[in-house]
Amino acid sequence: MGDAKVLADHSAHAITLRGTSKTYGPVTALHPIDLTVDKGEFLTLLGPSGSGKTTLLNLIAGAIGPTTGTILLDERDITRMPPRERGIGMVFQNYALMPHMTVFENVAYPLRVRREHPKAIRAKVMESLDRVGLRGLEDRKPRQLSGGQQQRVGIARCIVYSPAIIMMDEPLGALDKNLREQMQGEIKRLHKELGTTIIYVTHDQEEALNMSDRICLLSGGQIVQLGSPDELYFQPRSRFVAEFIGESNLISGRVIGNDRMKIAEDRFILVPKAERIEKSEHLVMVRPEKVRISKLDENTAEGDNVLSGEVVSSSFIGGMTRVTINTENGLSITAKMVSARAHSRPEPASKVRLCWSPSDSVVLEN
Ligand SMILES: Nc1ncnc2c1ncn2[C@@H]1O[C@H](COP(=O)(O)OP(=O)(O)OP(=O)(O)O)[C@@H](O)[C@H]1O
Fold first, then answer.
1. Structural domain boundaries enclosing 191
2. Taking residues 141-161, what's their average pLDDT?
3. CA 212 to mean position of chain CA atoms
4. Which residue's CA lies nearest to atom 2 of ligand 1?
């Protein structure tokens, strides 16, 4: 018995879901899913509105019970355990602070509920406020703080009792872009310092790419891909993933060899060699920043895919310039390049060549 407990404490998984689903009458909010979250991992639940992110978060937190399946915390079945006994910390988008209480009292609240000694409470609250950069503001009321500061209180109130798992539901959703980016950095730093498992919900793909160890991309109540930010960006499995994360060019054609795809009557492009690709109609994805634009008379690298076409539009968006080209064989391809000064940017109606390496083509699953 004792040994079993020691083993459980050393398990690598913080959370395990097995066949967990949620339906509301005829509505399936979450199809049965299997998911493990490793200890100390930063896992982001990403997906469009209605994809099931909040449902999944609420199932883990215990705010709702699953229709089927089990939920394990540290290998312990918590499927029917009340939320408070799970010891999972929550940070919400709307901060959920108590308006009549000071910052100190808001942060102290979870410790008072746990009946900790006042001395210990003071020390822990001050340490948490230090960690989130709020020392000195402990006597203010929430309404005397900016949005970013209020969310720091929300985070301090969560980390103050050292939960092993913290769930954050769109915590930066109410903040403007600059503050969001700053807070992303702060949450990442806290995660590193505390080594806590974080399950983070967002519908912002850049936030997910920037912060996560792994991203769990949801659509229609199902996991469509689970992997590192790199995998989701560079090796998307499906059209949905390719389009939801980053920008993409999609080229349809018929895979006919293990490294060739026919995109027009007399046109082929090279794709990475793969034994397993079914020889049939497929979509190939190429990221715009992998497409290079050159003048018609410039040499292109050997082995590259090369198409020629006419520039339709060119938009200067600061550091990058986005250029759309209609190719001779009827494709519309977008290239993103590091901006040059106006006189050397491709102009609409100019004829250009565009090329990319076959290894930057990703054949998507049908
Ligand atoms: N209590 C409920 N009763 C009926 N349907 C529900 C209920 N809660 C959620 N749903 C449905 O389940 C699906 C998933 O909802 P969920 O809130 O998990 O999505 P989400 O990805 O968190 O969306 P958002 O980003 O908009 O918060 C939606 O179609 C939603 O309408």
1. 13-239
2. 93
3. 6
4. 24
